Amino acid sequence: MAGRSVVVGVGHYLPERIVPNSEFEKTLDTTDEWIRTRSGIERRHFAADDETTSDLATKAAEAALADAGLTADDIDAIVLATSTADLTFPSAATMVQARLGMTKGFAFDVQAVCAGFVFALSNANALILSGQAKRVLVIGAETFSRIMDWTDRSTCVLFGDGAGALVLEAQDGEGTAADRGILATDLNSDGRYKDLLYVDGGVSTQSTGHLRMQGNQVFRHAVEKLTKTAETALSRAGLRCADVDWIVPHQANIRIIQGTAKKMGLPMENVVVTVQDHGNTSAASIPLALSVGKQRGQIKPGDLIVTEAIGGGLAWGAVVLRW
Ligand code: UT7
Question: Which ligand 1 atom sits nearest the alpha carbon of residue 35?
Answer without folding.
Answer: 48
